[in-house]
Amino acid sequence: MKILVSGAAGFIGSTLCRSLVEGGDHEVVAIDKLTYAGNLASLAGLDSNPKFHFLRADITDRAAMDAAFLSHQPDAVMHLAAESHVDRSIDGPDAFIQTNIIGTYVLLEAARAYYLQLTDTAKDRFRFHHISTDEVYGSLGPNDPAFSETTPYDPHSPYSASKAASDHLVRAWFDTYGLPVVLTNCSNNYGPYQFPEKLIPVVILKAIRGEPIPVYGKGENIRDWLYVEDHARALELVLTKGRVGQTYNIGGDNEQRNIDLVNMICELLDEVRPPQENGLSIESYSELITFVTDRPGHDMRYAIDASKIKTELGWNPKEDFSSGFRKTITWYLENEPWWQDILSGDYQLQRQGLEETNGRSLT
Q1: What is the pTM of this model?
Q2: Which tens digits make up the pLDDT trace of 205-223?
Q3: Is the distance from CB of 77 to CB of 8 less than 8 angstroms?
Q4: Domains of the chain by residue range
C-alpha cells in the first residue's frame, strides 16, 4: 500500500515509518509540520529509500493536504500528528485545540474529498486510521477493570479532551459520510527516538548527567507501558486487517507505578553504566530521585484491555517488563548525538530550507 502518515517525524510516527518501509512492503508519504517535537534525525536512513517521501506541511492547511492527496494518491492514511504532552497542554492549550481538533477535521475533509473521486475498487481498499490514546477514557481506581473499547470517555486534561474530540470526529465521518475508518487507542509508549521531555528519556538523561530525577507527587500513578515497535506492528495490523468502523485498544500488559518504573530504570542504568563511569560520587542513580509537586488533574491509573486486537488480529507485545526498557536504555546510551542535538536545539536547524525529498515542496 501507499500510506500517508501524518506526524511522521515524531516518536511513534518515525518508528511506524521505519516499520512500514523497512519491515513491510509499503510506500510511505510522510507529512510533518516539524514543530518542536518533530525531528528529521528520527527518520535517518529513510531519505534515500525510493519508497519514502517526506513533505513538510501542516495538517491544518487544507490546500497542502489536498495537494498531498492529489500528488501521491495514497491507499490509506495513518493519522498520528498531534500535540501530546500533558504538561504543555496545561500551560498552553491553544496548540492542542488547533492541531488535535482542527487538524483532524481538515485531514478528514481532505481525505473525504479524495475518497469520493476514487474508483469503487480503490474505495474498497482505502482506510483512514486514526491513532489515539488511552487518556481519553479518564482515570481508573486501583481495582477497576482495564479500559476496553466500550469504556465511556472521561478526559481530564486539555490534551486528552482534544484527543477525545478528534476520536469523535473520526467516528462521525464514518457514520455520517461513510468514510472507511479504523481507530486505535494506545497506552504509554516508550523506546528509541522519544522526545526528551517524556518520562522515560527524562529519567535516563537526568541520571547519566547526575541531575535530580523529578517524580510527580509520591510516584504512585500507574501507567501501562507499550514498547513503540510493538505498537507499530499493531498499527499496521489494524490498518490492513482491522474491521472498518471499529476501535482497537493497544496495550503492553505492563502496568507499573511511576516510582517503581523509575527505580527499575535506575537499577538497569547502575548495571550497564555505573554512576562512577559518569564521574558521579553516588552508589546508585536512585539517589537522584526527587519528588516534585504533582501536576493538576493528574490521572491516577491507566490500564488497557487489549484482548480484542489479540483475539481478532493475533497481535501480542514482544517486549516484556525488562527487555523493552533495557533496549531503550541501551539505545539512549549509544545515540548521544541524537538527544544532545535536541537538548542544544541544533536539531531545529535541519528545518531551514527543507523541501520534499523528491524535489517538490508543499510549503
Answers
A1: 0.94
A2: 999 999 999 999 999 999 9
A3: no
A4: 2-351
Rounded CA gap, 187 and 132, in Å? 9
- Spatial distance between the Cα atoms of 278 and 207, rounded to a whole number of angstroms: 9
Q: Give the H or E element holding residue 317.
A: none
Q: How far apart are CA 38 and CA 90, in angstroms?
A: 20
The catalytic residues are 134-135, 159
Per-residue pLDDT reduced to its tens digit, 158-202? 999 999 999 999 999 999 999 999 999 999 999 999 999 899 999
Distance CA 18, CA 24 (A): 9
Q: Give the C-alpha separation, 175 to 186, whole Å.
A: 23
| E strand segments, 293-345 | none
Write the class of the CATH domain 2-351.
Answer: alpha beta
Going by C-beta distance under 8 Å and a sequence separation of 6 or more, which residues neighbour residue 224?
A: 134, 146, 187, 188, 251, 252, 253, 254, 255, 302, 303, 304
